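Hypothesis: this fold can be encoded by more than one sequence.
Test: take the structure tokens below, design a sequence, compare later.
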């Protein structure tokens, strides 16, 4: 199948010899029309005849003009056919890749955000678990402290009883000595010795219990702080950042579009309602359709009633061919 014949890339426009006089004549048409002073029927008829002549000349000129520029328009059409498909293909490909790249960046941004949320949630859980374990250790330490304090109190009471017993035995020993009762004095001395030993043992047990009561809370607090610091130090690896693509940038591009399920008429009615409710700045969104207004005026004539507009008859001069 043969390829279509290509047009030459250059062309010379040739002015028809019979057109030049018409062009020169037509340049004075406006001055001639302005010169008419229509003040009687004869002049009015002459003006109408001239008007028809202007129209006939224009019919000839328009036909000649189409033939005159046709070769140039054909070359322009050929050039457009040669160049525009490639230009439009590149533009379309550029737009396609732009859309895909923006989609990739949006997905990457969402992925990184999700990873950040997961990382933050893991950190929160680790801190929460460390705090819970620390609280449990503090509670156990407080219970141990309470038990040790009770033990120290019991040892203190036993020590006090032993000390009282030692003082009583010492008094008995002294009384036996005064009375010359050696056996009673010896027995009282033995009782005093045992009571003092008991008091010393109870004092040592009391001191140990008090020391354990003091250190158990400190140890638990130190362990709790260690857990908290370990939780803070063992953070999950940070999420990867959004990939940077050289030469690509995205800027904000806020647009307005119809709400889901709404038509343009729905939006117009909503805007009108909002304007009536006190939002005059929205009036610029309602474009006045003069073509539709003219059609309504033609249809209803004197019965037309458009708020903010008047409907009147604006006659158009028409000519019947001779």
């Amino acid at each position: 199948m043969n390829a279509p014949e290509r047009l030459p890339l250059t062309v010379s426009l040739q002015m028809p010899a019979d057109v030049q006089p018409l062009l020169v004549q037509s340049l004075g048409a406006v001055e001639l029309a302005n010169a008419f002073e229509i003040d009687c029927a004869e002049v009015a008829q002459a003006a109408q005849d001239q008007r028809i002549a202007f129209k006939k000349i224009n019919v000839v000129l328009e036909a000649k003009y189409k033939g005159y520029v046709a070769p140039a328009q054909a070359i322009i059409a050929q050039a457009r056919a040669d160049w525009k498909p490639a230009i439009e293909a590149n533009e379309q490909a550029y737009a396609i890749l732009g859309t895909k790249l923006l989609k990739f960046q949006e997905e990457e941004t969402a992925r990184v955000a999700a990873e950040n949320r997961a990382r933050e949630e893991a950190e929160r859980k680790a801190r929460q678990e460390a705090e819970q374990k620390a609280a449990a250790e503090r509670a156990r330490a407080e219970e141990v402290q309470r038990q040790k304090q009770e033990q120290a109190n019991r040892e203190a009471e036993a020590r006090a009883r032993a000390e009282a017993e030692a003082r009583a035995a010492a008094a008995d020993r002294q009384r036996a000595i005064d009375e010359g009762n050696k056996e009673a004095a010896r027995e009282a001395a033995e009782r005093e010795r045992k009571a003092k030993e008991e008091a010393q043992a109870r004092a040592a047990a009391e001191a140990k219990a008090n020391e354990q009561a003091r250190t158990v809370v400190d140890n638990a607090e130190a362990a709790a702080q260690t857990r908290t610091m370990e939780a803070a130090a063992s953070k999950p690896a940070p999420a990867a950042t959004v990939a940077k693509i050289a030469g690509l940038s995205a800027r904000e591009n806020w647009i307005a579009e119809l709400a889901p399920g709404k038509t343009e008429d729905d939006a117009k009615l909503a805007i009108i309602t909002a304007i009536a409710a006190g939002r005059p700045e929205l009036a610029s969104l309602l474009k006045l359709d003069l073509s539709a207004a003219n059609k309504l005026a033609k249809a209803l004539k004197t019965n037309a009633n458009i708020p903010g507009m008047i409907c009147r008859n604006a006659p158009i001069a028409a000519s019947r061919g001779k």
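The radius of gyration is 55 Å. The mean pLDDT is 85.
Hypothesis status: open.
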